Each structure stands twice: as C-alpha cells, then as structure tokens.
Amino acid sequence: MSERRSIDNGATSTELSSPLPAPAVEAPTRKEPPPEKPSDIRRRSYIILSFWLIVLLLGLPIWWKTTTIYRANLPLNEMLDWADGKACRPVFPLRISIQADALQEQEAQTLLRLTQHALDDLNDFAGHHLRLQLSPPAQGDSREYDHDTALIIRLKPGGSTTANLDPYLPVLDITYPPNTIPSATSSSSSLATYVASQLRSTFAEEQAIISYLLSNNSIPSDYRPAGLTPEAAESLSKRTTRSLKYAPTYHLSFSLFTSGPIPTSWDIEAAIDEYMKPVLDVLSPIHNFTIDTQVQLYATPGVQNQVLNKEDLSSFVNAAEWPLSPSIGGAPTINFIVFVGNQTIAVPGENKVATSPSWLIPQWGTIYLLSLPYDTTHVSAQTLKQPLLTFTSHLLSLTGTPQSGSLPLRLSTLARIRSADLLLRASSTLGSLARLALALPSISIPSSVADGVSKTMHHLRLACDTLGGPEGLAHARIAEAEAERAFFEKSMVGQLYFPDEHKLAVYIPLLGPVGVPLVMGLLNEIRAWRKRRREKAEKGAAKKKE
Amino acid sequence: MRQFLSSILLPCLSLAALAPSTALGTSTSDYHEQLVLRPLPLSSLLASFNFRSNTTLSAFEAHNFQLFPRSLGQILQHAGTRELHLRFNLGRWDAESWGARPWDGAREGGTGVELWAWLDAETDEEADQKWLILTNALSGLFCASLNFIDGTRTTRPAMSFQPEGDHRNSTAANTHLLYGVLPHEVVCTENLTPFLKLLPCKGKAGIASLLDGHKLFDASWQSMAIDVRPVCPTQGECVLEIEQTIDMVLDIERSKRPRGNPIPRPPPSYELNCDKSKPYSADDTCFPADYAASQEWSLQTVFGKVMKGTCPLTDPSVLPVCLQVPESRTVFISNGAVEKKDPNMEQRCFEVPAEADFEMILPRPEGQQELKSQEEMQAQDLIKPETPLLYAERSFTGHGQERGGVQTILKNPSPDTEVEFIYMESLPWFMRIYTHTIEARIDGHPGKHNSLIQQVYYRPAVDRARGTQLELRMRVPPSSTVFLTYDFEKSILRYTEYPPDANRGFDVAAAVITILNPNNTDGKFAAYNLRTTSLLLNLPTPDFSMPYNVIIFTSTAIALAFGGMFNILVRRFVAADEGPQFNIAGLKSKLKAKFGKVAQKLDKGAVPNKVPDEKSDGARVVSGDSEKK
Fold first, then answer.
1. How many Å lie between the alpha carbon of B55 and the closest alpha carbon of chain A?
2. Which of A89, B151, B254, B509 is most deeply packed, by most CB within 10 A?
3. Are residues A334 and A261 in the same domain?
4. Which of A11-25, A351-365, A501-515, B158-172 has the lowest mean pLDDT?
C-alpha cells in the first residue's frame, strides 16, 4: 500500500486521478512550489542527522550514566561456592604427640604406626583427622608444651592398662603392662587399639559438634560424617542454640534484684575475684570480658507464684521494669541475676524441688534464686559462692564450651569449634549476599561491599588453610566481621523505590513532545531520500532506454 | 599452660585476705529525697521533688553500681561525660503571679528538651563524636528524640554556662561544653517512666510513689531535670552525684476533677465561687472571684494517690515532705507522722513512718471573710511569692514571609539594684539574623542605649551545618524595662527539609538568661536562671506538589522551544497556495472510505478489498520536503 502511495506521490499532482469531485475541482488552482536546491536538501539531512547524533551519542549516555544504579562487581559464583561449601573442605588436622620415654625408638615407632592404623580404621569422618607423632624423650618435667599439639600421650609402664586425663594440662597418661608392647613385626596390638579407642573417646564430643555444625550447613554430603544419631543431633542443637554468637568480647552484667527494700549491698567484687576470675582468665585467649554490677530494689518479678513451674521461668524476668539494658558498645551482654526471694522451682514430672534454684536462659544469661534471712541487708561474698559457681558453669555453656574432658582440652576444642563456626557463618553470609545481589537487580552495591567481600574471601581462604590452629581462629574472626559489615552496608539498606508509573510520569512529558518531532523528521527524511533514489534510478533507466 | 595454672591458683590464695577490704560500704547519707509543697496564688500548688544519690568515683569507674543507675552510668562512661544536665520541660512559668522560680531557675530548661554536658575530649572532632554517642544513647534511655540534636542544634556556649561540679584542673583543660536543644519535643509519660526507673526506690516507695504521669503532664508547668556532676568534699573521696528533680505547678481545681470523669462540666450554682462585693451580685448573677487559693486539698486529691512510706535508703536526717504555708494555717496529717516546724523559714516538715501510708490535708483557712480584700486574704493564706530578679518576655515582630524581628522585653523589678546577665540565643540556621540591627532601648527614654550591651559573642550560622549562636552580656538598670530587638531574614528551605506539618511553623528554642552572681558569693556562677518561652517561626512554605509541577512545566517549555526550533530548521516554507492541500471535505471522504472499508471487511469477511487510493492529499501534510525536482 504505502509503496504504491509513494509512487503516486511521486507523480505530479496534476496527473493525480482522484475519484472524488471536490479535490478534482480545486486541484487545477494549486501551484507547485519551485524546486528545492540540492544544497538545501543536503543541509536538511545534516540537521536531522546531527540532532539524532546528539541524542544518541550525548543524550543517551548521559541519561544512562545518571540513572543507572552503581553495582560493584561481586564474584557471585565464588561467593556461592563458599556458601555451598565447595570452596573449602574443612579439615581439622590434630597433632597428637606420644611420649614414650620407656620404649625403644623402634618399639615406639611400631606402636605409633599401629595406633595410627587403628585410628584410621575407627575414624569415619575425614574432616576430623588425628595425626600421631613421636616426640623426643623428655628432659625432666620442665617440658615446653607446643601449642600446635592438641594432646600429649604419656606412655608409662605400669601394672595394668589405664588411661588418665590430666585435669590442668592437655596430657593423657596411659600406663601399660610391659608385655603389651608390640614387636616390630606384629600387625596388631591390644595396646595400640586401646590408645586409639581412648583418643577417639576423648575427641568424640568435638567430632560430634563439628560434624553437627557441618551438617547444618550446606556442606556437600560426601564431606559429612554419617554417624550422627538423631538424639545426639538434638542434644547438640539444643546446646548450639543455647550458646551465644561468637564475639571477641563479652560484657558480663551482674545484678542483685530484690522485690523489697533490702538487701541493699553485696560483696560482688570480692566474690567475682574469688570464684569467677580464674575461669575468666583461662578463657582470656578466646574471649575478653568486661564486668559491671548493679543492685536494684523493688524489682517485682514477672511471676509471683511461690513455686515456679517450667512455663513461669520464661516470664520471670520482668523486662518492662527491670533495668537490664544491654551494654553500649559492640560487646554482647550476658546477664547474671541473683534474685533475692524464697521462691522454688518445681521440676516437671517429679514432685520434687530442684536442687539448684537457678536456670539458664539461652543466649541471654542466668537467674539464681537466693533465699536469705528476712532482715539481711548485706550479702556477703560467702553467700554468693554458690550463685557465682553456678554462673561460672553457665558461662562456659553460654560460650559454647564442650562438656567433657579436662579444662585445657575443652578450651582448645572450643577454639576449633569457634573457628569452624565462624568459617561457616561467614560463608553463609557471603552466600546470602550473593543471593541478595541476584534477587534484587535494582539494589545498589557500593564498592565498599566489594572490598568487604574480597577481604572476607581472602581471610576465609587463609582460615580454611590453617583451620585448627590459632591463626585459623583469627582469620575466621576477621572474615566473619568483614562479611557481616559487607552484608549490613548502610547504603545498601536504603534502597530507593521508583515504581514504573513514576518513571513514566516523569519521562512522558519530556520525551513525548521532543521525541515526536524528532522521529517524524527522521521518517520523512528517510522517505524523501528513498524517493530521490528511485527517481534517480528511473531517470537512469530512461536515459539508458534513450 | 603454666600461666593458666598460676592464674587459677594465685587468686584463690590471695583472695581470702583481700575479700573484706573490697566490700562495698554504704553509708546512709548517699541518698536522700525531699518533696516541698508550696501553694501559689490562683489556686496553684508547686510541688518540688528532689532525689539525690552519690557513688564514689572509684566504684563508678569499676562499673559497680548501687545507687547510681547502671544504664545512665554506662552511657556516661562510654561517652566520656564529666558533667551532664538534661532538662525536660513543658508549659510556662507565670512569673507575674507565681514569683521567683524554684531552685532559682537552675533546675529547669526551655520548653522541650535541653541537654548540656562537659565531655572529655582532646579535639573538637572527638568531642562531636562523643556528643553524638551521648545524644543517641540518652535518646534510647529516655525515649526522647534526643538523637535529633545534630550539628545544627548544637552550640558551644562561651559565657552562659559554668560547670557545677568540682573538676580537677588537669582534666578541665580537655573538657568541652556542648549544648543542644530540641524545642519541638513534647515531653510526656514515656519520659517519666525511664526517669523513675533511675531512682533506687523506683516509684514504689517514698515520695516518688506520688508521681503519676496523668497528673504530672496535666500540670500547668512542669520540669524534669537530671544533673550529674562530680563533687569533691574537702576531705574524703570524690563522689559522682546524680540529682533528679521534678517541679510542677498543679492547678488544684483541675487536679480535683474525678479521674474517671475528666470532662469539665458547669458546676451547680451553689458551688460557684462568686465575687459578692459586686453591686449586681445576686442569686441569679455571679461574677467569678479570681482568687481561689483557699481551696481544701490533700495529697490524694492532688496527686491521685497517697505516699507509700519512705524509701529505706534515704538519709533519715532529711525529712521527706515539707510544706510552705504561713504558720497560722492548720494541717492534718495521718497517724504516725510527726510535724516539725522550721522556725527560720516559713516551712514545716513531716517525719513519715517507714512502712505506713502518709496522707496530708490542708483545709480551707478559717475565718475567711468575704469583706476582706483579696490581697489581704492572699497574704493570710499563702507565703508571699518572692519577686524574681528579672522578668523576660520574647516575641516576634514584623510581618510577611521574608523578614521578621525578635523583641525581648527585660524588666528589672528591683528599685535599687542593677541586674547583669548573659542572654543566649541558639537560633536555627534558617533564621538569619542581622547583627547590625541588635539594639537595646529603655522604656520611656527615646533613642538607643546600646551601652547596655557590654559584650557580644556571635557565631554566625552555616547553612544546613550549624545554627546561630548569640550571647550578649548586658545589664538592666534598676526599675526599668529594656527592649532588646534584632531583625532577621527567613530563608527558603529545600523541598525535603520541610517537616510533614510545615504549615505549623518551626520552633525556635527559648533564650537562656543567666543572671550573674554579683560578688560571686558562695561559689555560684549564676544567681538566677530563666528561660523565655519558645517561639513559632513561620517560614515561606511551598506547595508540596511542586516537584511534579516543575517537571511538567519545564518539560512543556522545552517541548515548545524544541518543537518550534526543530520544525523551523527542518521544514521547507512555501507559499500558501503551493503547500499541500488540506480540506475538511477531503478528510471526511477519506474517513468515510476508511470506515466503509472496515464495515465492508466486517460484512463480507473474506472478500479482498481493493480500495482506490484516496490519501494522496493528506499524506503530504507532514512531508515538507516531498517535492519533485
């Protein structure tokens, strides 16, 4: 149609055959404008071209530049790899050295080899690996304990096979009857099996916790240990929910609450120094602690029953009235409350009163009900002994310390668990960030986030390589902090919302009136150009014919 | 590992000896509280609650809190605060009828919230940072919008404030005074609750048990103050003192309204208090008597509850409740309480039993005769209010949206003493003052008296960064009235800077007037403090649909200009009869043909259409260049 019409247009108007009478009558009165100069036609083409060039080369880039949201490049695939556990295979190599001063070098080597075999046979979890080594004979008792070694086994000849964990040092004393020493050629030994099973039971809890942590994250199943019974998993999940998120510093807040006007003072400083300080010092390589204390009178508990049931315990803390505001600064607060009152706790199931009038509130702290004589105005340090010992043991479980084994072993285990935990946490934060960036195409990603991500990945890599050691914990700590900072970047949270209607309302008034003349001008120009070309071709054809 | 061992063993051995010495001792004088009740003219009652507790600086620094509130203590430590003053204020003190302010005005602020503190910092930037921490933390603690005290609302007064506490000279050099004010803040119950939580006895016992949000915020004027300052006695250890003060002026008439039925209703005619001295006074006509001081009231009616014993921590030598009425008036108190008259001051105090409720009734004075003049009755029933050292009133002058003026009327009532004071204004940045227009005039004496202004400290505003700070040291001669005036210009804010209720106006903080202690007796810097009322400034307010209008308007202008220009550039101009034809008939027929075509299509469906081309004329309307060579 249009092709035909333009051909018609191409013909002079006088030749136009119109079926209607009116234009036919007027047509003869019309004059033709004089022919246009070719320079004018060219100039017009240049004008239109330059307008379009300005729009396309200047306008569009400026518009694009000013309206795009800055999104820093994030290594999304790598981040997701970390979150899925593909980037790091958490391995905890534990070095265990054997001191066997009474044995010959050869015998000791054989024992070592056999025990390692037995261990490898027992172990079903590749991530948690016990590696034995022989330590040189001791020079008396003044041995420097190497911090890289998780445990030292002291083998001593004795009457029977016994194992004993040293309460203050990471040392396992094993005595053996002389006849159980394996010969250089034997392929099995009861002593080796015994040592292996002892080691395994010592590290069983750590293994269970770490495998629980890994199984709760999206670590591929082939790295995961199989043997975790549902009951064990449940008790571990209870313990992990109870413990606080890792922080380098915890703030301990000790409060004495009483529902009446007395007692008004307590010897808390002395009591803390005496009963709690030793444990805090022991924990100091992993956590720092700041302490404050307060006395609050006329504090009514949320529940005023004489016998507290299990349901009452959760509402006992009167959060609206008790001034338990968390400390300022970054450190999470652990609350230890001594409540003066003679209420008792009913143990469910049995018709008995609990032995310890205290309970632990997960991730929050502990409440201890202290029953005092009616007219006590001052609580002595001696009275506070039992509450503080309770608080201390609860503090350990709030920080996530494992329950079995000797204290130094528990602490070194805690360091390893924490580094695994932090590693997994940082990885999953990275994954969330990557998913967020993918899910919200209009969210801006400032370069500080990209920096944070690259730092996190760097430290995660380092942490993964040195897992189990003290540097591992330090790197995991940095990685976790950086990941959190990147995820909670302030400028990302304040996302501007521009609905499409809004954009339309702003663009249409400008682009409509400007765009229509531009587009129409271009279309006309193209049409005229095509017509000219065709005429030229026709002319050429006509000339040829002649 | 050996470190572990020693750290476990050592404390255990040494602690047995240490334990007794580190015990926290409390002497009873570390806390006291007192309520002073003072009937005022016009049936008002001033109730001043004062709570003061101490903690030794060593216990404070060791984070052991006993009487000092932990929540506040932590904030002070975190923000490095040496001294803190926080004020919540509501209403206006009617100095003309109520006289001098309680505590000589030292425990009150301007309407809204006022905060000033001495912070420990090496540099100004560090001080600003700590100030930010302090305001944000206090904002959370007191449920007030203190976090809105930003750079534009913060000043560093040069002359008006002096620390109240004892600061060691070594630390004084590094302390910075910052002052912030929020005149727009409405003080309410949510600020009282955290205030009461800071008290050792909460609101459960002692005079604090009388405090109730409904009554407090129904008062004609009320002020809550928190002052924290270090105090070093001549001997003994330095202590950190926290003083919490609540002052309120209750309208007895209004307080007596039943709580369940608070809507005021006209009283029956026999209850009306009529001025019988008027000649037209009769059974059916009543001229209301404005003097109603001699109302009967009790703690129960005024505060809505009775006092629940005393706080056991309080210093027994300070009597908890005092009443300031002439000696001639009788007071009924509940059983067990003991009245103790103070011979020097016209005040009597009451010893309250520790565990029992305490109630006090002040009956209507006896022998009240209608024949007596009101002044006489007032003198008989009330202690005459003290005349304040200075009356101050501030208001806006001028009209229009562009300029305005501020006029402060300062009146010295004393017949023989000159008053010297510091007048401080902290104005928002959008109120640009012209300093050359600052002038002082004395009422009754024509001409300027700029010699009354002795010293000017002026820190100009920076747009959107800080407000104007103006401090004038000036004096008012005896028994004269001085007008202090200056002009200002209102600036236009950015669209997003207007609050949601922009047409309400912008609050301008109260001016702080600190009357200097002439001889610096008893070590006090200020003899009297007062604040003017805050002002409401009307700024030119735009129509808030403006941005879209602007978009449409500029777009239209651009489109017009562009379309015209582009067409002129691109089109070819020909004579009228040479141009392409356009007529109605042609268009009509064309449309008809089009519609006919559509109708045909609809009718016959599959019939192929062969419509003759009729568009030849119209198609050339837009094409200015479709010319044949």
1. 12
2. B509
3. yes
4. A11-25
Residue A447 tokens, joined: 């370069």
Q: Minimal CA–CA distance to B195: which of B225, B230, B222, B218?
A: B225
Residues of A in contact with B552 (CB under 8 A): 509
Chain A residues inside the 8 Å CB shell of B74: 292, 325, 327-328
**Cα distance from N-terminal residue to C-terminal residue, chain A:** 31
* Domain limits for position A28: 2-63+500-545
Spatial distance between the Cα atoms of A247 and A238, rounded to a whole number of angstroms: 20
Residue A100 lies in a domain: yes
Q: Which domain holds residue B328?
A: 27-256+286-381
Q: CA dist B539 to A430, B111, B152, B547, Å?
A: 49, 20, 17, 19
SS3 category, B442: strand
Residues B417 and B374 in one domain: no
Q: How far apart are CA B333 and CA B298, in angstroms?
A: 9
Q: How far apart are CA B595 and CA A150, in angstroms?
A: 94
User: Among residues 518-537 of chain A, which lie with CB inside 8 Å of chain B?
Assistant: 518, 520-521, 524-525, 527-528, 531, 535
Q: What b/e sequence results for B505-515 when a residue is b if at least 16 CB atoms lie within 10 Å of its CB, and e otherwise?
A: ebbbbbbbbbb
Domain count for chain A, please give it. 3
Listed in sequence order, the DSSP H helices in B267-421 are: 299-303, 374-381
The last residue of a domain, from among A398, A429, A458: A398
- In chain B, what is the straight-line distance between the N-terminal and C-terminal CA atoms, in Å? 105
Number of H helices, E strands in chain B: 13, 29
Q: Which residues in chain A (329-358) have CB-CB distances under 8 A to chain B?
A: 329
Helix axes A500-545, A38-53, angle to 10 degrees: 150
Tell if the CB–CB gap between A264 and B556 is shorter than 8 Å.
no
Nearest to A20 among B25, B574, B589 (CB): B589
Kindly report, residue by residue over B166-188, the tens digit of the pLDDT: 877 666 678 899 999 999 888 88
Strand, helix or coil for residue B475: strand
Question: Is residue A37 in some structural domain?
Answer: yes
Facing residue for A298 by CB, picked from B26, B205, B551: B205
What SS3 string covers A231-289?
Answer: HHHHHHHHHHHHCCCCCCEEEEEEEEEECCCCCCEECHHHHHHHHHHHHHHHHCCCCEE
For residues B411 and B506, state if they share a domain.
Answer: yes
Check if the beta carbon of residue A129 is closer than 8 Å to that of residue A93.
yes
What pTM did the predictor assign? 0.76
Q: Look at chain B and report how many structural domains it folds into.
A: 3
Same domain? For B581 and B531 the reply is: no
- Cβ of B202 within 8 Å of Cβ of A273? The answer is no
The amino acid present at A393, given as its one-letter code, is S
Q: Indicate the pLDDT class of residue B49, thresholds 50, 70 and 90.
A: very high
Same domain, B129 and B161: yes
Report the gap between the CA of B628 and the closest CA in chain A (Å).
Answer: 7
Residue A376 located in a structural domain: yes
Q: Are residues B620 and B506 part of one domain?
A: no
Domain boundary among A377, A398, A419: A398
- Say what the ipTM of the complex is: 0.73
Is A355 among the domain residues?
Answer: yes
Q: Which residue of B has its CA nearest to A26?
A: B581
- Quick check: B99 and B385 in contact, CB under 8 A? yes
Distance CA B214, CA B46 (A): 16
Residues facing residue B362 across a β-bridge: B297
Last-in-domain residue among B517, B537, B557: B537
The string of pLDDT tens digits covering residues A6-65 is 444 443 444 444 444 444 444 456 677 777 788 888 888 898 899 999 989 998 999 888
Facing residue for B581 by CB, picked from A26, A328, A514? A26
Residue B178 CA to residue B182 CA, distance in Å, equals: 14
Q: Which residues pair with B456 in a beta bridge?
A: B472
